[in-house]
């Protein structure tokens, strides 16, 4: 046992209240003093701060306080403080040992939830190395998960509980929780939980479940019969029909595929033919437009030739009159002075003749191009006409192919629908067969559970014996009178002292034996390396040292008197102080501890007397107006 929690302080605060609380040291802590000073309140508050649902019982002195603060040292050595409203609900975890809110805290829920670490129970269990454990909670093997509250009875023992006759293991005293309490004790001693147990269903539950299943199966069968109708075809007829339909569908699939392929081919061919026609038509139109432009160009060439020919003819006429008398004035050639103009006319005549020759060459080239383009346009128009005829033929073929394909498809869909109907009926028959098999299985009687058969719970004999020996060692260390023998009664889930049930002893002896079991559990877990929170709080374990005339528990019984006379108290405290390396103890008592115990423990005394040391857990409240002081 290595992971331990250590109590460091328990404090209480309120809006207008003076701080109050307790501090704790490692090892042995003793809180003793007068009655009604808050000792039991402190024990209840500790239990409450570890997830108890019930707040400490209200006392007048605690009225001004609304929050509790529990300082802890965690297994890794870190120190934190849990704070919780005294009214209940969730927790806040603060870093360090504090009694006021600071930075860096986080919240934890107060209800156990095994699926989350965001609650105090799972947070502490994981810190201590328990993790998620399963516990059988009844004879049928149904399970619960380990909660920190399952461990609380082994950590916090009230004055009423420590003298109770019921087993410390069966702490609730309720039969409904006995199984899980047995298995918590087994888990602590062995480290083995019940995750391997497979739950069983009670016969009554099985019968109810079976009746429900029969009713449901009968409803399903009736529904199938309604779907089949009054006179459905037989299974054999449906199978034959299914075979015939499959053959017909196979043939139709081939015909439909062939018709579809033909239709696809025609559509593709028509698309290509249409594209060719459109291409020829567009090219021919482009050529015809070009020829129109070229014809206009030829007209320009003709006009230019005619103009140049007129220039050429005029020049020739003027040149012909050179060297003759002037037709206007009759001047002889020698008397004329226009020689320069004659040369210019000659040049113009020559240029016009040359330009005419060039234009005629260009016109001849243009005529050749136009003949070529006309031939190409004529060919394209012829191709267009052929393609138009082909399109008409393809449209006719498509008009013929489409109805055939539609007919094949319609017939195929009809056969498919019929096949689906046949398949549905055959599926109904198959479902009916399965339900009839299930119905027959449900008719088999439920086997009776053998008498006394139930999920194994609680400790095995050897482990129980080993635990009893540790209890004996604790009692011997405390100087228990005589030579006691201790055994563990598996039926009672309690120890026997010298063969006598623990519950048959007087209150003081019961209290001491109860305390011995709680201390022995911590020692046993340490010796076996089992997880344990590492602290034990005991309220009035030394009840035998009460004053008979003043105690509400009455006079000592004979066995209590023997125990008191044996001087157990000194050795009790000495033994617990000697266990400081493996655990922490808080002992709450009314009687004074032996002087030697005071030197080995953190001791806090509540005097219950004003002005005589510390009054109690909380400061004494002022006297009320009527002169009476609070009790």
UniProtKB/TrEMBL annotation:
<protein>
    <recommendedName>
        <fullName>Rad50/SbcC-type AAA domain-containing protein</fullName>
    </recommendedName>
</protein>
<keyword id="KW-0175">Coiled coil</keyword>
<dbReference type="InterPro" id="IPR027417">
    <property type="entry name" value="P-loop_NTPase"/>
</dbReference>
<feature type="coiled-coil region">
    <location>
        <begin position="235"/>
        <end position="269"/>
    </location>
</feature>
């Amino acid at each position: 046992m290595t992971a331990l929690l250590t109590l460091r302080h328990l404090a209480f605060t309120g809006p207008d209240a003076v701080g109050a609380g307790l501090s704790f040291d490692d090892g042995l802590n003793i809180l003793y003093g007068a009655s009604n000073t808050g000792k039991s309140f402190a024990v209840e508050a500790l239990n409450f701060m570890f997830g108890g649902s019930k707040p400490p019982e209200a006392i007048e002195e605690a009225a001004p306080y609304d929050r509790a603060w529990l300082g802890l040292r965690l297994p890794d050595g870190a120190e934190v403080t849990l704070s919780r409203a005294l009214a209940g609900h969730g927790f806040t975890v603060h870093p360090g040992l504090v009694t006021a809110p600071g930075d860096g805290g986080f919240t934890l829920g107060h209800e156990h939830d095994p699926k989350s670490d965001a609650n105090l129970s799972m947070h502490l269990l994981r810190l201590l190395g328990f993790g998620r454990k399963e516990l059988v909670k009844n004879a049928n093997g149904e399970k619960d998960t380990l909660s920190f509250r399952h461990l609380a009875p082994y950590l916090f023992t009230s004055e009423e509980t420590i003298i109770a006759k019921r087993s410390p293991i069966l702490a609730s005293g309720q039969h409904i929780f006995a199984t899980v309490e047995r298995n918590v004790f087994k888990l602590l001693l062995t480290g083995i939980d019940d995750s391997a147990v497979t739950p069983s269903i009670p016969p009554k539950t099985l019968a109810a479940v079976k009746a429900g299943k029969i009713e449901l199966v009968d409803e399903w069968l009736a529904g199938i019969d309604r779907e089949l109708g009054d006179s459905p075809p037989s299974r054999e007829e449906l199978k034959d029909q299914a075979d015939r339909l499959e053959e017909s569908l196979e043939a139709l699939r081939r015909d439909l595929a062939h018709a579809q392929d033909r239709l696809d081919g025609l559509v593709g061919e028509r698309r290509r033919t249409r594209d060719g026609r459109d291409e020829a038509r567009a090219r021919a139109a482009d050529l015809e437009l070009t020829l129109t432009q070229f014809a206009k160009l030829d007209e320009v060439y003709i006009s230019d030739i005619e103009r140049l020919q007129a220039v050429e003819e005029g020049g020739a006429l003027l040149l012909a009159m050179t060297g003759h008398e002037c037709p206007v004035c009759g001047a002889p050639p020698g008397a004329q002075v226009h020689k320069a103009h004659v040369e210019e006319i000659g040049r113009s005549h020559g240029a016009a003749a040359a330009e005419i020759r060039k234009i005629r060459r260009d016109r001849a080239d243009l005529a050749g191009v136009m003949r070529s383009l006309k031939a190409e346009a004529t060919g394209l128009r012829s191709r267009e006409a052929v393609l138009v005829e082909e399109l008409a033929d393809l449209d006719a073929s498509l008009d013929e192919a489409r109805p055939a394909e539609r007919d094949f498809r319609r017939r195929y869909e009809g056969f498919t629908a019929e096949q689906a109907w046949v398949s549905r009926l055959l599926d109904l028959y198959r479902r009916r067969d399965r339900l009839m098999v299930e119905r027959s299985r449900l008719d088999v009687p439920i086997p009776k559970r053998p008498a006394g058969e139930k999920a194994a719970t609680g400790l095995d004999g050897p482990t129980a014996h080993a635990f009893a020996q540790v209890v004996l060692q604790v009692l011997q260390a405390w100087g228990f009178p005589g030579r006691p023998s201790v055994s563990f009664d598996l039926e009672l889930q309690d120890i026997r002292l010298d063969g006598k049930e623990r519950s048959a002893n007087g209150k003081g002896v019961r209290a001491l034996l109860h305390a011995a079991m709680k201390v022995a559990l911590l020692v046993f877990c340490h010796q076996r390396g089992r997880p344990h929170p590492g602290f034990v709080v005991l309220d009035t374990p030394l009840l035998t040292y009460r004053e008979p005339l003043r105690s509400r528990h009455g006079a000592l019984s004979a066995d209590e008197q023997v125990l008191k006379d044996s001087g157990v108290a000194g050795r009790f405290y000495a033994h617990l102080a000697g266990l400081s390396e493996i655990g922490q103890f808080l002992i709450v008592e009314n009687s004074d501890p032996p002087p030697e115990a005071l030197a080995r423990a953190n001791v806090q005394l509540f005097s219950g007397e004003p002005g005589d040391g510390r009054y109690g857990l909380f400061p004494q409240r002022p006297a009320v107006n009527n002169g009476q002081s609070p009790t």
